Amino acid sequence: MITGCNGRPHACFCTDSRSNNGNCWSVFNSTDIPLFEYTSSVLSLVTVVGACTAFFAATVGLLQNDLKRVIAYSTCSQLGYMVFACGLSNYSVGVFHLVNHAFFKALLFLGAGSIIHAVADEQDMRKMGGLKKLVPFTYSMMVIGSLALIGFPFLTGFYSKDVILEVAYGKYTLEGHFSYILGTIGAFLTAFYSTRLVYLTFLCRPNGYKPVICGAYDSSYQICASLFLLVVPSVLIGFYAKDMIIALGVIFEEIQCSLLPKI
Amino acid sequence: MNRIDSEFIIHIYKILPVILSLLGATLSFLLYSFGSKLLVQLKLSVVGKKIYNFFNKK
Known about the structure:
The structure holds 2 protein chains of 2 kinds.
Chain A: H1 17-31, H2 33-37, H3 40-62, H4 67-87, H5 91-118, H6 136-150, H7 156-170, H8 174-203, H9 210-214, H10 221-245, H11 251-259
Chain B: H1 3-6, H2 11-34, H3 36-44, H4 46-55
């Protein structure tokens, strides 16, 4: 299970190997285009499984109280989007979401590590709150990361998630419409739990131990610089990489088209 | 390749995910700001408990 990241927190770099495995699987999926394209039933299965994963992981993330678990289930949900994009034969769109997702999820995990470090290794969001004024830099980074994840217009997540859902509906098949509906509900749930995360951690009144909350501080400049380095692509990469990865006529698209079966 | 087809879908289906995302964010903020009692009641109800326990593997 992806929730194995709830162990004792130590460093700010909360690498989740299972999420990485999922990402690797998405890339593997995208490199096996010919195998999938000759078996339409498998494509349908991949679409349905991806859509169900996106929806189910979002519902699970909605009820988690562990900061890192929420982000981990969010990753699982986004992997579902990538997989159902591949199931709809839009591999470049899936890879585009993978690239975009890498930046804002790295930002969110690093921000989560920074918060956990600031509140004496506490991971339960119910015991946080009121950190907005104590860790302002991390707060602003987490807000931008969450907005990118939500798919707020003109941030990175918007460009890829929107295209995935458009191609799902534009497929005009049963599994296409099924994945569009589940993906759209998943987008609603993503927005809900991301805002919940920001609210419980930063905006609501403090719920933790007074010495812990009062002693919270922003991380060192190395971590802040890393957060800043990640926030720039989290805002801009979707806009700039869109034409490089998913525009019609680019080399990535031509390779993909050459691998598709000739009708 | 249905990305060209997807450019011609009905406009409402294009913007529905964005609308729902914004709605979800707003709803979450309002619920946690002003409806925390409602959330607690929901969580302590029989169905709420079952759902919570299921998703938290308890």
